[in-house]
Amino acid sequence: MSKLIYFIPMSLDGFIADEGDDFDWSTPDDEVMAFINELHRPIGTYLYGRKNYETMTVWETPDAMSGLTPAMTEFGPIWQAADKIVYSRTLAAVSTSKTRLERAFEPQLVRDLKAQLPHDMSVAGPNLAAQAIRAGLVDECHLLVAPVMLGGGKRVLPGNIVVELDLLAERRVGRGWVYLRYGMRLDRVSGQPG
Questions:
Q1: Does position 193 have pLDDT exceeding 90, yes or no?
Q2: pLDDT of 143-175, one tens digit each?
Q3: pTM as predicted
Q4: At residue 194, does pLDDT exceed 60?
Q5: Measuring CA to CA, how many Å separate 29 from each of 12, 46, 173, 175, 176?
Q6: Is the per-residue pLDDT at 190 higher than 80?
């Protein structure tokens, strides 16, 4: 059975984007990017909302980007090798290979994928991850904490929910980044909407 992992960079005060929806502050240095590659290599399927998917499509043709470091260049093939499922009511079509479009997030379909797939899956973005967490689908939460405080913006973790976690790993990476890996106690999720 595969695991569903919520992997996301975040500011020290818990945000993925500032109040202007900017997340440029989270651009990793080469050491952090190499670590991200290491964590993403075993992922066989990415679950995306529209906005995250559109941000990540640049990795379909990384040769078109200038100034890539060796670790960034290495991420392109890792991303391209994985399947992608995009959840969007507004996106007309997907533009990358190995990608399918779903109009709504269906927890049972994700449960079925977890039971069938031989590789782990990743859910990206706080909105889609919140749905998966509330449905009791997220097995692990991997937070890559950047040494920056934003003071407000888009929160990484959902509100109005209580989930007990077990710290599985921690590691300092790059210039002040900290990786935290938590196991989610799926039998102890409360505050779910009815």
A1: no
A2: 999 999 999 999 999 988 889 999 999 999 999
A3: 0.92
A4: no
A5: 17, 23, 10, 8, 11
A6: no
Can you give the C-alpha Rg of the chain in angstroms?
A: 16
Distance CA 88, CA 102 (A): 6
- Edge to edge, the sheet with strand 120-123 lists 99-102, 83-87, 43-49, 120-123, 4-11, 140-146, 177-190, 162-173
Q: Any idea which fold 4-190 has?
A: Dihydrofolate Reductase, subunit A (3.40.430)
Reported confidence tier of residue 11, pLDDT bands at 50, 70, 90: very high
Q: Return the amino acid letter for 181.
A: R
What residue segments make up the domains of the chain, in order of their start?
A: 4-190
Residue among 155, 76, 83 at smallest CA distance from 116: 83
pLDDT of residue 141: 97
Please, which contacts does 53-60 make with residues 24 or more away whose CB atoms are closer than 8 Å? 53/84, 53/86, 53/88, 53/91, 53/94, 53/99, 56/124, 57/95, 57/96, 60/95, 60/96, 60/97
